[in-house]
Write a structure and sequence with these properties.
Helix content is about 80%, strand content about 0%. The chain has about 250 residues and is mainly alpha-helical. It binds retinal.
């Protein structure tokens, strides 16, 4: 954040500008969440610190992008598509890393992590092309993106990741399940925003919604919620360990 930004006159936010409002609140919420995760890191067992660190990084990276997106919207009154996708292409792979980190206790291999990362990048790059490069075929790019999304959902709900979670059992299994729900329901918010903001046969269905408001809502739920699930798991796992030690 440079001096130029800090010295920019504060623009008014119209009371019905929900995009500006959700960018503003989103930036603050991401900052607060990042501070929370970073500062709590050292209270956990060493094994869990990396997971909490990644939760902090996800929300921190989002906070910085929200700061820029908030500014961009104020200045241009158009969707900050580029910043949005740069944010996602950094943070969504980190969410895939979270799956790998919590399943490591059951012997998760790096190949699982790379597979999920690869799928998420395919999902996001095709989404970006549909929104910014080839809007006339947005429906087709959205379909390819959606296919990659479904493979991710399959992998974590029924595929190799699921098997590892079952093997780990206990708190890891239940955290894995909650994260799976985030991906199935929380991530499904994004295609709705996409359909609201790109031309296509679906225009009439979601036409009344704002792409940016939907995306901002999705980000708050998914980035902070995801982090809290991991935080909860680390708390439970660290406590059971110290109980065992005192017994
Ligand atoms: C923190 C940001 C997150 C969790 C972003 C997730 C984004 C998606 C799951 C986006 C998915 C899309 C589709 C499934 C189809 C249409 C294009 C996208 C990129 C919006």
């Amino acid at each position: 954040m440079n001096l130029l930004l800090l010295s920019t006159a504060l623009d008014k936010i119209a009371s019905d500008d929900y995009v500006a409002f959700t960018f503003f609140v989103g930036a603050m919420a991401m900052m607060a969440a990042a501070a929370f995760f970073f500062l709590s890191m050292n209270s956990f067992d060493r094994k869990w610190r990396t997971s909490i660190l990644v939760s902090g990084l996800i929300t921190f990276i989002a906070a910085v992008h929200y700061w820029y997106m908030r500014d961009y919207w104020q200045a241009n009154a158009e969707s900050p598509t580029f910043f949005r996708y740069v944010d996602w292409v950094l943070t969504v792979p980190l969410m895939c890393v979270e799956f790998f980190l919590i399943l490591k206790v059951a012997g998760a291999k790096k190949s699982l992590m790379w597979r999920l990362i690869f799928l998420s990048v395919v999902m996001l790059v095709t989404g970006y092309i549909g929104e910014a490069v080839d809007r006339d075929n947005a429906w087709l790019w959205g379909l390819i993106s959606g296919a990659a999304y479904f493979v991710i959902v399959y992998d974590i709900w029924l595929g190799s990741a699921k098997k590892l979670a079952v093997k780990a059992g206990g708190a890891v299994l239940s955290a894995h399940k909650t994260l799976c729900w985030f991906v199935l329901v929380g991530w499904a918010i994004y295609p709705i925003g996409y359909m609201a903001g790109t031309p296509g046969w679906y225009e009439g269905i979601f036409g009344g919604l704002s792409l940016d408001v939907v995306y901002n809502l999705g980000d708050a739920i998914n980035k902070i919620g995801f982090g809290l699930v991991v935080y909860n798991l680390a708390t439970i796992a660290s406590n059971t360990k110290s109980l065992e030690e005192t017994a």
